[in-house]
Amino acid sequence: MEIKKIQKQVRVGVGVFIVREDGKFLMTERIGSHGENTYQLAGGHLEFGETLSECALRETKEECGLDVINPQLISTTEDYFKKEEKHYITCFMRTEYNGGEPQILEPHKTKDWWWVDWKELPENSFLPLLNLKKSGFNLE
Q1: Which residues have CB under 8 Å from 130's CB, separation 6+?
Q2: pTM (predicted TM-score)
Q3: For residue 20, what are the CA distances in angstroms to 118, 120, 140?
Q4: What is the C-alpha to C-alpha distance for residues 33 and 127, in angstroms, rounded to an integer?
């Protein structure tokens, strides 16, 4: 009988601040995965061979249908989800909103999109965002 060893890995997540001229950024509610019922940015996993900028552009298009511009790395966090036994390094990218209406393109993963000011970050935000806020980061 072969015993299959489960290998735990640290993964790279990318969170994308899609920022309008007024400084507000786009958020949605997570469903169907770790961090369910918390509020998050567009984003996802970095794929092998992909740059952080490519990931930010791809995930934004896949999740909300927006074409954003000028992706820039602005911060990172280390995030351990104890209950789910998941460990991430999250890279936060800032992009510029380039027009259009955000859409729910992955209804099994996210709910409505809305624009938020950094000062109004929901208390029940996704762990990487909470860790970013705890670090003293300020989007403004």
Answers
A1: none
A2: 0.92
A3: 12, 15, 12
A4: 13
